[in-house]
Automatic annotation (TrEMBL), chain A:
Subunit architecture: The glycine cleavage system is composed of four proteins: P, T, L and H.
UniProt keyword terms in alphabetical order: Lipoyl
Name of the molecule in the record: Glycine cleavage system H protein
Keyword hit for Oxidoreductase: no
Source organism of the structure: Paracraurococcus ruber
Required co-factors: (R)-lipoate
Organismal lineage: Bacteria, Pseudomonadati, Pseudomonadota, Alphaproteobacteria, Acetobacterales
TrEMBL record, chain B:
Species of the source: Paracraurococcus ruber
Catalytic activity: N(6)-[(R)-S(8)-aminomethyldihydrolipoyl]-L-lysyl-[protein] + (6S)-5,6,7,8-tetrahydrofolate = N(6)-[(R)-dihydrolipoyl]-L-lysyl-[protein] + (6R)-5,10-methylene-5,6,7,8-tetrahydrofolate + NH4(+)
Protein name as it appears in the record: aminomethyltransferase
Enzyme class: transferase
InterPro entries xrefs: GcvT, GcvT/YgfZ/DmdA, GcvT/YgfZ_C, GcvT_C, GCVT_N, TrmE/GcvT-like
UniProt xrefs under PANTHER family: AMINOMETHYLTRANSFERASE (PTHR43757), AMINOMETHYLTRANSFERASE, MITOCHONDRIAL (PTHR43757:SF2)
Length: 125, 368
């Protein structure tokens, strides 16, 4: 399985063939607390890198989730409507948010790897 | 947001850190928003067992001297002269314009009144009270006391073996007691909709008391996050969100806190506005709101009538773990305030279907 890449907004991206799967990191779900609702983008929407395109609501607050890369949304995780707690229990697995067909796959390679992201989180503490 | 270096700490700060709490700034204090269990688990723990909250940031004071109740009645529409010894009552401090200066608890301890006020308002409240006291009466601010809230259906069973006298208190009863040898002033009250106690204790004994209570079966620590979702499900107001100097007691649906005698005397601050709104109805009313589906509507969400006309704003909203769905409260035009009225809550530009709903959202379980 290809390795995860990370953003400073605490999203992860994984290139799976033509599409890139996107979710929020374990650090992000832990900071949010119990997730109770997710507002996902429409399939087919064209998004720019850094554009707010999903909202995750915890008991306490609502937070935007940004498209880490430019492209077209090709699938969303419909299981989250019934079970948003998957984001807490499996943030980089069953708790994924949406898939994007990237405009430029090179954008993903330029993002932080796990080690760089860990160092970034540490520096924010 | 306040610089974290300048935040005040409660006497339980060390305990919170030892328990792994996540601390956040609230009303100038570093307070635990949650412990490792999380807001959802802490909320449900309070509804099914017992939860211990640190509410030491709240202001505690006493008024000493003859005629304290009559003196404090100058600032509130509550009937304080009719408050029996060892009983507590919810009271609003009102402004001359009929707004709400703060909400608070007042207890009659026989030889004095005991006050608990909001952390965010305590400096203003105490200045107001001090200025209103005639010669011979004295406000004694109890800055060296902590306040713990033990809330939930298991609260009585947790406290009974330690202080049998407190198990016998009824809702809004107040007593001095010793818990494990620690002197306390306890009331059978709280702000979660559950049975329980609020316990005032000397700051230097607070951690020992908290550790003793946490060692009782069924008691777990809970933070401000759970306290907020619990009070919202219970339909209780948060000062600064749901009530403030612009909202009147009638608009806020807190008319029940105005004493019968006071409604004949009309001699409290803002009586003119309250009297007019009671006679003719207020322009807007605080109501419960139940959004359809699972999406929460937060504070400041605009409220629309079914035809899209703006009719008000959400003042508190979130997810109710016991309701297992979103709950909110807010102000709407009186014509839209009837239970079941369909409304739209404008969340991120889209109207979320909701209805006016009776509060509390979860039946309260006070020990009557």
């Amino acid at each position: 399985m290809p390795e995860l890449r990370f953003t400073k907004d605490h999203e992860w991206v994984r290139q799976d063939g033509d599409a890139a799967t996107i979710g929020i990191t374990d650090h992000a779900q832990n900071a949010l607390g119990d997730v109770v609702f997710v507002d996902l983008p429409e399939v087919g929407r064209e998004v720019a890198a850094g554009e707010a395109c999903a909202v995750v609501e915890s008991v306490k607050a609502a937070s935007d989730v940004y498209a880490p890369i430019a492209g077209r949304v090709v699938e969303v995780n419909t299981a989250l409507a019934e079970n948003p707690a998957l984001i807490n229990s499996a943030p980089t697995g069953e708790g994924w948010f949406f898939k994007i067909e990237p405009k430029d796959a090179g954008e993903i390679a330029a993002m932080m790897d796990a080690e760089a992201y860990a160092a970034f989180v540490e520096s924010q503490a | 947001m306040a610089d974290s270096d300048s935040l005040l700490e409660t006497p339980l700060a060390g305990l919170h850190r030892a328990l792994g709490a996540r601390m956040v700034p609230f009303a100038g204090y570093a307070m635990p928003v949650q412990y490792p269990a999380g807001i959802m688990a802490e909320h449900l723990q309070c509804r099914s067992g017992a939860a211990l909250f640190d509410v030491s940031h709240m202001g505690q004071a006493e008024i000493l001297g003859e005629g304290a109740a009559a003196a404090l009645e100058q600032l509130t529409p509550a009937d304080l002269q009719g408050l029996k010894p060892h009983r507590q009552r919810y009271a609003l401090l009102t402004t001359m314009a009929g707004g709400i200066f703060d909400d608070c608890m007042v207890a009659n301890l026989g030889d004095r009144l005991f006050l608990v006020v909001n952390a965010s308002r305590k400096a203003e409240d105490f200045a107001l009270v001090e200025a209103a006291l005639p010669p011979g009466l004295r406000l004694n601010i109890l800055a060296d006391r902590a306040l713990l809230a033990l809330q939930g259906p298991a609260a009585e069973a947790a406290i009974a073996p330690l202080a049998p006298g407190l198990a016998a208190l009824s809702f809004m009863g107040v007593a001095r007691a010793e818990i494990g040898g620690i002197p306390v002033l306890a009331s059978r009250s709280g702000y979660t909709g559950e049975d329980g106690y609020e316990i005032s204790v000397a700051a230097d004994r607070a951690e020992a008391l908290a550790r003793l209570l946490l060692a009782q079966p069924g008691v777990q620590p809970a933070g401000l996050g759970a306290r907020d979702s619990l009070r919202l499900e219970a339909g209780l107001c948060l000062y600064g969100n749901d009530i403030d100097e612009t909202t009147s007691p009638v608009e806020a649906a807190l008319t029940w806190s105005i004493g019968k005698r006071r409604r004949m005397e009309w001699n409290f601050p803002g009586a003119e506005r309250v009297r007019e709104e009671l006679a003719n109805g207020p322009a807007r009313l605080r109501v419960g709101l139940k959004p359809e589906g699972r999406q929460p509507a937060r504070a400041h969400t605009p409220i629309q009538a079914a035809d899209g006309t703006p009719v008000g704003e959400v003042t508190s909203g979130g997810f109710g773990p016991s309701v297992n769905g979103p709950v909110a409260m807010g102000y709407v035009a009186r014509a839209q305030a009837g239970d079941g009225t369909p409304l739209g809550l404008l969340v991120r530009g889209k109207p979320l279907a909701a209805r006016v709903a009776p509060t509390p959202f979860v039946p309260n379980r006070y020990k009557r």
